[in-house]
Amino acid sequence: MDDHAARLTIDLSALRANWLTLDRLSGAAETGAVVKADAYGLGIETAVPALVKAGCRTFFVAHLSEAIRARAVAPHAAIYVLNGFAAGRMQDYVAHRLRPVLGSAGEIAAWRKRPDDAEPAALHVDTAMNRLGLRLDAALELAGSTPLADLGIGLTMTHFASAEEPQAADTQAQIARFSALQAAIQAPDSPNRAIRASLCNSSGHFIPGVPFFQLTRPGYALYGGNPTPGRDNPMQPVIRLYAPVIQILDVPAGEAVGYNGRWVARRDSRIATVSCGYADGFPRNAGNGPGHPGGAAIVAGRECPFAGNVSMDLITIDVTDVPEASVKAGDFVTLIGDTLDIDRVGVAGRTIGYEILTNLGRRYRRLAVGA
Ligand SMILES: *Cc1c(COP(=O)(O)O)cnc(C)c1O
After folding, report:
1. Of 140, 133, 139, whose CA–CA distance to 159 is shortest?
2. Are residues 181 and 35 part of one domain?
3. How far apart are the CA of 34 and the centre of ligand 1, in A?
């Protein structure tokens, strides 16, 4: 072990393969990529060039600052800013050729002051979530009466509340509502027939019979998350996380391990302490104690349960079942990878795989492979 950092590998060929898988599913529609939250923790500067290489030409971020970073590595792409239009920063949107996603009458009014060379914005329509966007009736009224192009709008979009449950009534209702808007936009006398539309996130690609419209917005599945929970994951894993063993201790039966003594050895045990903890974004809720089995690591090819709480910088692992000669200080154990995919790690940490990704630590030694 030459330093204490856990190692995060990012497989860019898997990232590209995942984008291509979704692109095949979306048929004639263009497939975009959501790279908000620093490309779900992988790094905008790492992920965006790989996606451009795969053929992606449209990116979505949450913040203006992320859009400016994406622009630096994707000079020719269309870049949308999901969290709306920060009117005081008009100059930045224009200078970097960015496209705000407008979600309210106030934002639409502010965008009317754009200069002529501004890129076309998107209009966010809320079809279920009551979170962001114009209500459907307001959007129908606007699209029925006004050429959206005159407002500087080139795309309408909505977002699924539970796309991973394709049979849910909510999901089907959202498809129906958004399709009604598109039918109005595509009516023969509509001034808005050239306006494009975007509906599907990752899981949306897997809804049987879903309309893809002209553009999709996958995020999680690109990074290896399972867009079809409960079924086999059609995506390739993109990240792997390895942590170095610092020390191996013999713990007699009856003694406790870690903060608050939440794990007590039921037999004479061996405990491996590895250099990774909740300060690295590994969920503290993945601790193993009464009522929650918590997480596991793969040690010498075998899944071994955590022992006790996850500490800030350390995790303790019960390696009693691993032959003594096959694990020693300096070896690396797998915290994410193989059977421990990000969805499983999410469940072990009482959260979701999305949060495992977006919390990926800043201390990791990061290595992009498959460029
Ligand atoms: C985050 C986000 C997406 C991507 O969702 P995934 O489930 O990660 O594929 C798409 N659209 C909007 C509006 C989003 O906020």
Report:
1. 133
2. yes
3. 6
